[in-house]
Every structure is written in structure tokens, then in C-alpha cells.
Amino acid sequence: MTMRTTARLFSVALLSLGLITGCASTDEADDSPSAAEAIAEAKVVNAEAKSLGYEWRDTGKIIKQAEAKLAAGDEAGALALANKAIKQANTAIAQADYENKKFLNDNAVSSVSDDSSSTRGAGDGVTSYSVVRGDNLWNISGKDEVYADPYQWPLIYKTNRDKIKDADLIYPGQVFDIDQNASASEIDAAVNHAKTRGAWSIGDTEQSDRDYLAR
Q1: What is the SS3 assignment for the chain?
Q2: What's the pLDDT at 107?
Q3: CA dist 35 to 20, 73, 96, 108, 110, Å?
Q4: How far apart are the C-alpha atoms of 102 and 135, rounded to whole Å?
Q5: 126-130 and 175-177 strand pairing
Q6: C-alpha span between 30 and 151 (Å, rounded)
Q7: How far apart are CA 22 and CA 98, in angstroms?
Q8: Residue 176: phi, psi to the nearest 5?
Q9: What pLDDT score was predicted for residue 31?
Q10: Res 210: pLDDT
Q11: Are 47 and 39 in contact (CB under 8 A)?
Q12: How far apart are CA 177 and CA 89, in angstroms?
């Protein structure tokens, strides 16, 4: 990640915490990038998000809209759209970084605590899992007592399709069944879907997810 991208991520975080305001002085405004520069940056940052598999569904479309406004001479409109695309792409990269760090952290500590909310079956793996705050299908699947592989999260999604409307949105208190008897082909299909799913956004059921569930 570039120094400029890191600085923008830090600024976004400060804004969200209310530590700085969104207003800039006239001198600061003079340092703002042009619409063309912002569009170029949006493309670079979004390409990074895409390479991580975390590109938001509409970011590329917003960049195209910004280019169209710039071509029509609407500098302000183009800049606003480009900045929106940059913010989305930076958020996507932050999500990827968070997921990776959380996965590494989860695997650095004991996978089963004394107050574990999971229920073990006859085998080594759990047969059910109670969602707690901060959970997502990726990190649940990565737990040693579940699948010890975050890329197998589609197995949980498919097994609990009646409880999960959006694979990117689960809630504390939900209890998911964990299929410990999936066949090799089912596991391969799940991992392949996780790696090739494409762009996603919270609150929507992606077409790629529908196709996976239909198999």
C-alpha cells in the first residue's frame, strides 16, 4: 500500500471518530488533487482492492461516472465521484487487512476457550457454532474446531442458507450448523467459490453466491 493511500486511510479513520472535521481552509483546498488526479488514484486503489478480492460492486462504475463527468467539463462532479470511489476502495482494503490480521490473531491463540459457545460432536470438529460479536463466516471457518481454513466459509453459508440472507452479514446469537462430513468435491467447490466470488457489498445477495447455492 502506498504512503499516500495509508495517509488517506488514517484520515478516514480520524473522520469516523470525529477527531478531525471535514472542513478545510482555503490553503488546504488549494492542495486538493484535480479531478483527473483523483480519478487516477481511484483506479490504482481500486485495483489493489480488486487484487485482494475485496473490490466493492459499484466502485468501478463510480470511476466510470467520474470520467464521464470530467469529459463533460464537470470538474467538481468528477472530483466528488472520484473521491467517493477512493473512499470505497480504501475501505475495502482496510476490510481485507482487518480480516487477514484477525485470522492470524485467531490462529495465534488457543482456538477453544473455557467458555466456548461451540458444541462438539463425536469427531474432532464442532457440529454447531453460536455467532458472537465481531464474527464473520471467514473467521468462523478459519477456527481450528470448525474447518481450520477460512476459504471453506461457503460450506457454512450453504448449510445454513435458511438462516443467512447475505453471506457478508451475520448476527450475534445466530446458531449455525457445521457440516463436518462434506465431501472432497463439496470442499473444493466451496474453496473455489471463496477465491473467485468477485465483488461484493453488504446487504445484497451476490449473483455468484446464488449460483453457488444452486449447485
Answers
A1: CCHHHHHHHHHHHHHHHCCCCCCCCHHHHHCCCCHHHHHHHHHHHHHHHHHCCCCECCHHHHHHHHHHHHHCCCHHHHHHHHHHHHHHHHHHHHHHHHHHHHHHHHHHCCCCCCCCCCEECCCCCEEEEECCCCCCHHHHHHCCCCCCCHHHHHHHHHHCCCCCCECCECCCCCEEECCCCCCHHHHHHHHHHHHHCCCECCCCCCHHHHHHHHC
A2: 60
A3: 23, 10, 27, 44, 49
A4: 10
A5: antiparallel
A6: 46
A7: 25
A8: -105, 140
A9: 61
A10: 87
A11: no
A12: 33
Instruction: Supply 212's cell numbers.
Output: 453457488
State how far the Cα of 111 lies from the Cα of 46, in Å rounded to an integer: 34
- Delimit the domains of the chain by residue range: 3-106, 112-214
Let me know if 102 is exposed, middle or buried by CB neighbors in 10 A (0-12, 13-18, 19+). Answer: middle
Low-confidence ranges of the chain (pLDDT < 50): 3, 5-7, 9-29, 110-123
Q: How many C-alpha atoms does 46 have within 13 Å on its Cβ side?
A: 23
Place of cell 487484487: 51
Q: Which three cell numbers stand for residue 70?
A: 470530467
